[in-house]
Amino acid sequence: MRVIDAAFCFDGRSPGGPRRLAWDAQGVVVPAGAGPVSGDVPTASWVLPGIANLHSHAFQRAMAGLAEAAGSDEDSFWTWRETMYRFAGRFSPDTVRAVATQLYVEMLEAGFTSVCEFHYLHHAPDGRPYAPATAMADALFEAAETAGLRITLLPVLYQRGGFDGRALSSRQARFGHGTEAFLRFHEALCAHRSPMRQVGIAFHSLRAVDTAVIREVLAARGDATGPLHVHIAEQPAEVEDCLAAHGQRPVERLVAEVGIDARWTLVHATHLSPVETAAIAASGATVALCPTTEANLGDGLFPLREFVAAGGRYGVGSDSHVSVSPVEELRWLEYGQRLAEGRRTRATLVPGSTAEAMLRACAASAAASTGLRVGTLAEGQGADWLVLDAQAPALSGAIDADVLDRFVFAGNRPLVREAWVAGRRVVAEGRHRLGEAAAERYAAALRALRA
Amino acid sequence: MRVIDAAFCFDGRSPGGPRRLAWDAQGVVVPAGAGPVSGDVPTASWVLPGIANLHSHAFQRAMAGLAEAAGSDEDSFWTWRETMYRFAGRFSPDTVRAVATQLYVEMLEAGFTSVCEFHYLHHAPDGRPYAPATAMADALFEAAETAGLRITLLPVLYQRGGFDGRALSSRQARFGHGTEAFLRFHEALCAHRSPMRQVGIAFHSLRAVDTAVIREVLAARGDATGPLHVHIAEQPAEVEDCLAAHGQRPVERLVAEVGIDARWTLVHATHLSPVETAAIAASGATVALCPTTEANLGDGLFPLREFVAAGGRYGVGSDSHVSVSPVEELRWLEYGQRLAEGRRTRATLVPGSTAEAMLRACAASAAASTGLRVGTLAEGQGADWLVLDAQAPALSGAIDADVLDRFVFAGNRPLVREAWVAGRRVVAEGRHRLGEAAAERYAAALRALRA
Fold it and tell me: What ipTM is given for this predicted complex?
């Protein structure tokens, strides 16, 4: 058993205060026991649980900043998607591995200690499977292992080009599976499950997968599905198309035709009716909010306050990775609500720290959304935590009551000094143990992708 | 004469490309001349002009993250202002100097090379003048000199508590001047003018200063006013109060009763009628947008696209300093527009880099708004520039066409490797030459302020 004494430990549930944090050889939090332990106990200042990144398309990290040039006055999510498809067509398992490794290093340096990888870049550019068929997924597993990040791989089922049932375009050929092939693919991936690796299922969207197929997949995999994720109601056009095709809004349709529960994570869920907002909250499902990507793409603002008032569960994801920071996601999740309402402190319904309320929400949703033992520092959970930089001016003179608000709402420099995953320190003095090696392989991959 | 060869130099006007940048002993950009110079010429990779910070209340930097705890469901700009007033009451010249020095170090590390200090913390807490009366302003000048930042000091005229003419509250006692006293105060400050120090005039708001007094001050100071700044139309309540008192909206009233021109900077100008938006654009005045503070306070979104389409001039400011970064200001200025419109690339009306369009706007407004020779790297302007970190993964494989978009829209780590002001390098390897000294004095000041 190893221990540290934290002057302030916010465990994701109870308010922060002094705590002796103990973990075993498997990297699991255990009771610290009473009284002193033999030898010196290392001390830490500000400790909080590592944050789960609930939505990632790793390859898109290499596109950050490359899709910001104006094409026309009609630039939108849909023109961005065309750029993304062209870019996606260039990746191989080697370039995915290099880009994902750098991305996962950046996640750990920023405070994310686990990631849900919403993975649809399955096949060769012409649509033929790699040998092995899991080559791209394997590259993501290897990247996470190299970086020391927990990963929930979510192979994406992507079958059609729209609600009208049209076939995938040639640019979408890499993404597709028949239902039977997908079930075999998922079964093969499940062999990789471990405390560091979870496997779930992602349905790309109701646009791309019929609800009858979703039911078929759920029935076929039974208790073996793992966490279930779906993109939903990100753009008004998706809502309009679903209404036109089925007379139902996307969330309304998913609830009615499939049913959702705590196994489910709805990604974005930006455009909701009040009935849909209440239905998600009542189901116990998690909403994965990606404020920096949703702003970059002009998606819109999620009705956070109504959802929280209804008892809804949420976390954050960095999605397209124009930003890789739980701080920017949480800060701008709250700021978007303030701009929409002309009020402050929107994410909490009770007096007290806004940041603590948001970090509690992330902690409470992490285990169900990732399928991993993460989110809080409760006994039996993974020993994944962050040590904030007590020397940073943004935390100068911080006290227990304000340190979490300063972490989320003050300044621009990364404030994570250490990141620990499964009881191992992977970030020290703000930098990942891999140093420059990941960045050098990333640079080489970018040269190959742009050649 | 000193020179560097930049592989890419965006001078604020023409597109970036290779350039030999030359400056003289006074820190002014001069013609590089033809042919090689004797000796080796140092080289830089990505160079752009230092960015002017058009709006700062330095003392508020010490509050960052301290006003994010929920009090009630009615938390708003106005409850925040009460917290700010309590905090403002604690400052002395020594604590203002220490806080401003750290803030100005952070500005330079983030890419701001000049600041407009909207200064209203004039007197002792009980309202009695310091001896000398300029003690607080002197502390700000000293902080800027210590950090190596150019400063435009804007002494604020603040005379009443509202449009109804009520007197200042006891919490506002530090801010007030009679008109004659203010004219003497401004005259005394003008003696400090130099290439590194400009002095202008700020009228706090139409709420706090009657337009007849603004006319009186402008007439009395004539050609000696320097740049003119005013807070305007930040909150709907201010617009409503102005309409109730005068039957005019604030910008409408300022234009009709005082008149505005290129000497003027309107701070925030968030809540505008289409006629007001067009009037500001036609006047040649600059709008100082502070997106991170305006989001933190729930102010609302400026009609950027309409304003740009009308030929309006704008720049950015960090205002309350919850964030100290031109990147976060520009990124979220653009993102706010995307969220409001459901479209992308909003800040530019022509094909090409969104970031370049925004940085051009900042460059074009800097000289008029600061009254300093800053903003572009044209001959005769101050040799104030930034060198981006070519080794940063966010710039990995960057090319001329995308480097500015990556600077503004990719990642979270500061990308400024060097900052130069008046031809002197004040930031190297991302860190200010003062090192930890400013942070230590800042920490001591915070302890004093919270004691």
Answer: 0.97
